[in-house]
């Protein structure tokens, strides 16, 4: 049984929120988030045994050439917690985790990969049973990074323990030892679209976590709080909000860049198969279907609307790129991508052949979940 959460003696929920080690300042936001400003050198990453003698890289030495970003990705404070305060210099913001917000994540990429392999071999959907469902585009090869402009929405998550995600996966290694770095936006049962990162180095078994919930990811930016809500989101047939997500290798480390902000990095020493390069890149959406009562969840993916509805109504990925082993961003041709939808009647993906208008290689994805055409 979970105990009440307390901050400075106040009960605010169902699990005890603990102040992070090295906290210099604490910020409470209007929407109930608690942000600890933690001394840079006391952040969780440096408790990892592989990082005891780690040489810290405070900023990337360069950004690969030919990165495509657009005017809707300015260098700005895109999270609302800044309205309640700022973290001092030489600190980083860490959001206090509110309970078990990520209960359904283990083994999800292995399930997606198994489904993709089966579909490429001509097997039916029934051959791979999974509660995780996807609408993604995949690229195989040898890579030093990936980028996309991701349309940000706040899809409805119907049941506690479910989630809806729009993200990039950077991957290497066999299923049982798969290494991944993941980043994008995520909505849980709290119905808030949040920036997140994730990593594992052993197939989601014992290593890795979301955000800064375990030692690993080294954060260098004092303006971005991983796991905290994104301020602006898209509206149906109205204003569209995008976020630029870039993962790329620099001086041996894998850097995360959000819009124009270098956020931090995954040290290569965390990984085995990703120590050198990635062999798979995936862009797209994921949901968890808890199948309550034996019926399909109403949890939405993307905007909650099918790709066929197009701009302003369906969620999209634009300017899809990879970083080659020479450190240069290159456009992914639409014909190079392998689309995969676990259940197209529930959630689908539609690759676009028109790359004009500044969108680069792009696709629409998502869907409403449960309907007459998606009963289970």
Provide a short characterization of the protein structure:
By secondary structure, this protein is mainly β.
Q: Oligomerization state of this entry?
A: single chain
Spatial gap, N to C terminus: 32 Å
Total DSSP helices: 1
Query: Main beta sheet: strand number and arrangement?
Result: 9 strands, antiparallel
Overview of the structural elements:
- By secondary structure, the chain is mostly beta strands.
- Helices cover 3% and strands 35% of the residues.
- Strands 7, 12, 13, 14, 15, 17, 18, 20 and 21 form a nine-stranded antiparallel β-sheet that branches. It has a seven-stranded antiparallel β-sheet with strand order 11-10-9-8-16-6-19, with helices on one face. A three-stranded antiparallel β-sheet has the order 3-4-5, with no helix packed on it.
- It is globular.
- Residues 1-16, 71-75 and 118-129 have low confidence and may be disordered.
Strand and helix map with partners:
Layout: E1 5-7, E2 10-13, E3 23-28, E4 34-39, E5 91-95, H1 108-120, E6 132-143, E7 145-151, E8 164-172, E9 179-187, E10 193-200, E11 209-210, E12 218-219, E13 242-250, E14 253-258, E15 261-267, E16 278-288, E17 315-323, E18 329-331, E19 338-341, E20 348-352, E21 362-366
Antiparallel strand pairs: 1-2, 3-4, 4-5, 6-16, 6-19, 7-13, 7-17, 8-9, 8-16, 9-10, 10-11, 12-15, 13-14, 14-15, 17-18, 17-21, 20-21
From the structure above, extract its key features.
376 residues, mainly beta, 9-stranded antiparallel β-sheet, 7-stranded antiparallel β-sheet, 1 helix, 21 strands, Neprosin_propep, Neprosin PEP catalytic domain-containing protein, Neprosin, Glutamic_endopeptidase
């Amino acid at each position: 049984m979970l105990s009440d959460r307390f901050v400075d003696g106040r009960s605010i929920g169902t699990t005890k929120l603990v102040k992070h080690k090295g906290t210099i300042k604490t910020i409470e936001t209007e929407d109930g988030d608690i942000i600890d400003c933690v001394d840079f050198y006391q952040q969780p990453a440096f408790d990892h045994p592989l990082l005891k003698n780690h040489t810290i890289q405070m900023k990337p030495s360069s950004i690969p050439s030919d990165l495509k970003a657009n005017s809707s990705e300015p260098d700005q404070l895109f999270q609302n917690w800044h309205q309640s305060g700022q973290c001092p210099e030489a600190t980083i913001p860490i959001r206090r985790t509110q309970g078990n917000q990520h209960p359904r994540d283990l083994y999800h990429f292995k399930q997606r990969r198994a489904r993709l392999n089966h579909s490429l071999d001509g097997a039916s959907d029934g051959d791979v049973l999974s509660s995780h469902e996807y609408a993604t585009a995949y690229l195989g090869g040898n890579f030093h990074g990936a980028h996309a402009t991701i349309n940000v929405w706040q899809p409805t998550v119907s049941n506690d323990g479910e989630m809806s995600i729009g993200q990039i996966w950077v991957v290497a290694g066999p299923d049982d030892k798969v290494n991944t770095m993941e980043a994008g936006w995520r909505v849980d049962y709290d119905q808030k679209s949040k920036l997140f990162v994730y990593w594992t180095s052993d197939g989601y078994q014992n290593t890795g976590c979301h955000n800064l919930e375990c030692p690993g990811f080294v954060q260098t930016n004092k303006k971005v709080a991983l796991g905290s809500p994104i301020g602006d989101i898209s509206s149906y047939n109205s204003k569209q909000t995008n976020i630029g997500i870039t993962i790329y290798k620099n001086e041996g480390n894998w850097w995360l860049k959000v819009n124009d902000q270098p956020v931090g990095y995954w040290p290569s020493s965390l990984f085995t198969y990703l120590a050198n390069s990635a062999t798979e890149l995936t862009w797209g959406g994921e949901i968890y279907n808890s199948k309550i009562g034996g019926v399909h969840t109403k949890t939405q993916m993307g905007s909650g609307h099918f790709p066929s509805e197009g701009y302003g109504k369906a969620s999209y990925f634009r300017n899809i790129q990879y970083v080659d082993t020479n450190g240069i961003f290159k456009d992914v041709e639409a014909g190079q991508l392998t689309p995969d939808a676990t259940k197209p009647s529930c959630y689908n993906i539609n690759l676009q052949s028109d790359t004009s208008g500044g969108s680069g290689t792009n696709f629409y994805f998502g869907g409403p979940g449960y309907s007459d055409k998606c009963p289970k």
